[in-house]
Amino acid sequence: MDWLEGLQLDYGHVIRPLIVGTLVSIVCSVLGCFIVLRKMSFLADAIAHSMLAGVIAGYLLIKITLGREAELGALLIGALLAGIVTVAMVGFVTRFSRIKQDTAIGIMYTGLFALGAFVISIKYFGSMIHVDIYHYILGNVLSVPDEELWLLAIVTSVVLSVVILFYRPLQLTSFDPIMAASIGIPVLAVEYLLTVCTSLVVVSGVQIAGVILVVALIITPAATAYLLSDRLDRMIFLSAIIGVFGFWLGFALATFAGASPGASVVVTMTFIFLLTMTFAPRYGLIADWIRKSSTIPQEIMEDVLGAVLRAQGKSVPISEIERTVTTRNMKIRQAITMLGRQDLVDVDHDQVCLTEAGEIEANRLVRAHRLWETYLEQTGTPEKELHNKAHKLEHISDQATVEYLDDVLGHPISDPHGSVIPADASQIGPDREFVSSLLREGNRASVQRVGALADSFGFKPGDTITMGKRSDGGRTWTLIAEDGRELKLDHEQADSLVVRMTP
What we know:
Layout: H1 2-37, H2 41-66, H3 72-96, H4 101-121, H5 123-126, H6 133-138, H7 146-165, H8 167-175, H9 177-182, H10 187-226, H11 232-257, H12 261-279, H13 285-294, H14 298-309, E1 316-317, H15 318-324, H16 329-341, E2 345-348, E3 351-354, H17 356-378, H18 383-395, H19 399-408, E4 433-435, E5 444-450, E6 464-467, E7 477-480, E8 486-489, H20 491-495, E9 497-501
Antiparallel strand pairs: 1-3, 2-3, 4-9, 5-6, 5-9, 6-7, 7-8
């Protein structure tokens, strides 16, 4: 006891602020995780600023009706009502007008904050109000009355208890409110519960730490923890640690430099966030730069395949690929290594050749490029722009898109430059059925099914047909029957005949 009494006498001016700061940091940091995940940071700032009007309203009400100075309870009730009114007005404006939530928040919180400042500036009311606006904004953590300390302790206990008891509903509604509603969680009630908790924290914290520090403690530690964790429970734990550590470090800096504790803590918190954003092992700027620099864009890998394919089965020196593909040589060599791991190319010293799988993939790219050139020509694209635009489109098209494009174009055989469009090996072959419109000149196939549109041509399952030369600009298919008959089919009729390739 003697040691505790001595500690209180010698360091009481430091112990009380640290206790207050620790309580504020923990409750703000924990609650801030849900606010950051729900993208409600601006709303927390709005509640904090709008409370000035509530504090002044509560002060005036007590002064005018009872003729005495307002006590802490009246000021807190007024501030809490102001926070609730702010949330209600934001919801009203958002629901019944074209104004979005962020705009409504900006209008309402600045309006209510200005209303409080306006009332104070009126000469008649100004002489009646004794509210320290400077400490309201920056806080007064060095001189916290006992009643405010007890209030903060009660609010901290209540809010942390709510988070523990309702952790699961808060978690589900933060990540997927639609799924939460589908399993019976009252999403709107959970949102109101979180709003009330935010108002309580801000109300109790503003009286002690000021608007700036409370908002910083709610948002900054949670945002910092968000960069360090992918799980909510870990994020909450890290946020609380970062909040307490940032407050203690900022308070020490303020004591050493003789600065304002509130401003010093905010600066420290911001500095910790910037350090984390830069050096975070997974989501930091440096980690992102390393990840991007080591990642090989799919476009480069596909360009390398195309460059090797143009050698028509021969090996290509890496130096030749580096001259053909327009990117950094290091990226090209990394792309060749990656393609080798995927068994798409074989690398022998400085010579590169396609494997069987690589040739199929390269033909798929060439096919997509030439189909896009054909499509772009039909849409009126200038000839000099065909190649560059098709080169971009071939890299962002999936297989389904290319197949649809081929069908819409009527399965063209050549592109606008006269180059042959390769057939898709994944569509035709002896081990799969496909429509006869995909056959090329000279292909033989066995009829599998005959649709209604091709029924009049006399085909029946088991017949062998040979594809002849297409005519009418590629819009008419010539099928040669076993008896030598040449039958002319349009696109829909050829699609109605299902075949299988034969040797």
